[in-house]
Amino acid sequence: xxxxxxxxxxxxxxxxxxxxxxxxxxxxxxxxxxxxxxxxxxxxxxxxxxxxxxxxxxxxxxxxxxxxxxxxxxxxxxxxxxxxxxxxxxxxxxxxxxxxxxxxxxxxxxxxxxxxxxxxxxxxxxxxxxxxxxxxxxxxxxxxxxxxxxxxxxxxxxxxxxxxxxxxxxxxxxxxxxxxxxxxxxxxxxxxxxxxxxxxxxxxxxxxxxxxxxxxxxxxxxxxxxxxxxxxxxxxxxxxxxxxxxxxxxxxxxxxxxxxxxxxxxxxxxxxxxxxxxxxxxxxxxxxxxxxxxxxxxxxxxxxxxxxxxxxxxxxxxxxxxxxx
Length: 325
Ligand SMILES: Nc1nc2c(ncn2[C@@H]2O[C@H](COP(=O)(O)OP(=O)(O)O)[C@@H](O)[C@H]2O)c(=O)[nH]1
Ligand SMILES: [Mg+2]
Hints:
7-stranded parallel sheet; 14 helices; alpha/beta; 2 domains; 13% strand; 7 strands; binds guanosine-5'-diphosphate; 325 residues
């Protein structure tokens, strides 16, 4: 049955993909063995990140970008990382409605993810979903995420090319760039260029990019693209800019370097999460955690030596006695 499921994911069955992602979200053990099987088929897809403040037009742009990529025959996976809970879900529905023209297209797979408490964080969960879509044969994967907290910045770290969407009239656009988003953008998109202030924003961003390059020269100078997403204007320029950045990454060796670093982090994070999960579970199941916590509260012991004791005990146990922790 599992073999069959692996096969169907690799063939791009929407149903099989959806089920696998649900298993991943639920930390169902079936997910892990399928992920092990499909990993060999990942690594082909190009990953684009679309980030920026809510309401900036990320979903609209993702939709138009998808249309442009489909026109040149590429298949597309979309992962919308949404900050709203799955229970309030208004934005999720909005995304779905806006993307509706792609719903019947077998070359497009759309998945909305709510940022609820995934063990190991949103970045790991998103990374898993990207691998699933990659293995299922999607040529390009677009991650749409709100560029606010560290979690989102981690998520965007998965992308090969990151596009930061800015809109005129928000005043604080440049301010938010100072807060760390600046470093992750490869392409700036000034969307809603039909609104007043677009020219000025383009100039401000360009000046800012120049200044930053002056302080910290890199091989790639981020470009600024003007779009009116609702009118499908400027999207071809965005596609061109993404292509250019991709060529730069590939020719400079950055593409492999980025992926090597990502794989390193990902592997360490997986080990970290699994160790944490096992230790926590054992300590909880044996009731030992409650006792330790009480003793720490009563100041009969301190959390520091408790940590050292648990870790040392764990490391010195022979494999078959790990349950005794
Ligand atoms: N005037 C104008 N409105 C736009 C443009 N792009 C998106 N919008 C509108 O802005 C609103 C928010 O867009 P959405 O794609 O949901 O933004 P997101 O929250 O960043 O995903 C929607 O009502 C869009 O129709 C644009 O270029 N010009
Ligand atoms: Mg959106």
